[in-house]
Amino acid sequence: MLIVGDEILKQNLLKDADRSHIKNSSYYLTIGAIIPVGEEAKNFDFKKPLEMLVVKPRQVAWVVSKEVFSIKSHEITALVTLRSTFTKQGLLALDVGMVDADFEGPIGSIVINFSKNDVPLRKGEEFFRVAFMTHAEVPNEFRPFREKMSAEEYIKKRHNEIIGSFPATFLNTEVLSDEMAGKVSEKIKKDILDQALLHIVKNYWLKVVALIVLTTLAVGVASYFLLAKLAPNLTQKEVQSMIQVWIEQNLPKQEQSLPKQLPQKK
């Protein structure tokens, strides 16, 4: 069953909650901190957090809620989603979902701008939507240890992770573009060569076969006369045997016919 309306406040499920953010069956969490990613993260000032950040196309940022969860019951779980207003603008939140029973602390998520337009984020703006649900009590054996963090501790931990692990943009499009251009170019070259060979084989295969046969015969005859001239000590049978071996290795089977008697040397 959902917990709605003033019951969210009465059960103290959120610290710093404001009644004005209760809408329908949900509570709308607001932005408490915006942590930029990339070079800007190194200059992040915890004492003077950003009031606004414009998330450019493909750019990444980390958003932390102002409200702090205080779910002390093992019979309550929360479901957090990104506010539909932002999903319609092209933002995607990567780290939202279930908030388990007995969780205490703020929540945050990496957001990525998949649109072609800039998306501004402002401190205090409604960003996440949360629904609280009651259920049967979670048994002791399924209650893992949970680290409880204040908002300040949570932000510092996320900030350290951002500096060490996350690029400023979701994809390095320049590198990807170069790689893709190279692959496409190679594929085009291969396709052109394949098509050219296919065209030659399809339209001129008889001429190609005839040329190969004539060339092979010419090489064979020339080899015979060359051997006859340069190696006069070879017998006719030895020369014939050498030519027969060469023909078997280089001519199709149907062309491997050799006169039984070679012309006599003069």
For the structure shown, list the relevant keywords.
nine-stranded antiparallel beta sheet; elongated; 266 residues; Deoxyuridine 5'-Triphosphate Nucleotidohydrolase, Chain A; three-stranded antiparallel beta sheet; 2 domains; alpha+beta
Tally the structural domains: 2
The end-to-end span amounts to: 113 Å
N-to-C SSE string, H for helix and E for strand: EHEEEHEEEEHEEEEEEHHH
Helix content: 25-40%
In terms of per-residue confidence, which ranges show pLDDT below 50 for 5 or more consecutive residues? none
Major beta sheet, specifics? 9 strands, antiparallel
SS elements, strand count: 14
Q: Tell me, rounded to a whole number, the average pLDDT.
A: 79
Backbone structural class:
alpha+beta
CATH superfamily of the largest domain: Deoxyuridine triphosphatase (dUTPase)
Named CATH architecture of the largest domain: Distorted Sandwich
| Dominant shape | elongated
CATH fold-level label of the largest domain: Deoxyuridine 5'-Triphosphate Nucleotidohydrolase, Chain A
Q: Total number of helical segments?
A: 6
Radius of gyration: 39 Å
